[in-house]
Amino acid sequence: MLVAGNWKMFKGPGETEAFLAAFEQPAGVEVVVCPPFVSLAAAVKGASVKSGVAVYAQNAHWESQGAYTGETSPEMLVELGVTGTLVGHSERRRLFGETDETVGRRARAALGAGLGVIACVGETLEQRESGDTELVLKIQVEAIGFAAGEHERLMLAYEPVWAIGTGRTATPEQAGEAHAFIKGLLDRPVLYGGSVKPENTAELLGQQGVDGALVGGASLEPDSFAAICRAAASIS
Ligand code: PGA
Question: Domains in the chain and their CATH numbers?
Fold first, then answer.
């Protein structure tokens, strides 16, 4: 089981340091935090005290350097002591123009540089309601698989867009079905994401094919994140 906290655009270096000082990591679960870029150095420093917490970025470019204003390369992340990155989060796809092609390129380059990758996929409410969930997942997962293959450092995250930040989770059955479908396309671990909270973790992660959680809002407080990690540890 792996639990990753996606902090999005929350927590500068000071709050990052305070979080890691307060966070009690339970045994029996792998824990990842994904702070904003400016807080990665503070996180690496804080996590080295809390052995076992891995620090991932929220994105990485596909080139190692160049004229790409606002971007950060996998090699730069490695130099900082970061051990992985998210790619393809739905907010990147929806708000910042990420496509299956750029997500694939980012995943491939990050893996090539030695990073772990959590590649996010998921359908919108409109796509689910029109019966296109599997079509959308197939296109997204195959793009990642084509670019990166069944790489040992690659994980996927199934995050139905309608469940992100809405308080509305997929039912355990919906999650189980989507995870089985994704694994049929690319045989890698799949995390569930979308309104994961301490109260629903055990039920969601208890589903076959759900290998952990990608947590947004509930990862911002050390206590609620630790409660989610404990719930994950208890079923692994
Ligand atoms: P949420 O976000 O847990 O706040 O729904 C999940 C995510 O965006 O990764």
Answer: 2-235 (3.20.20.70)
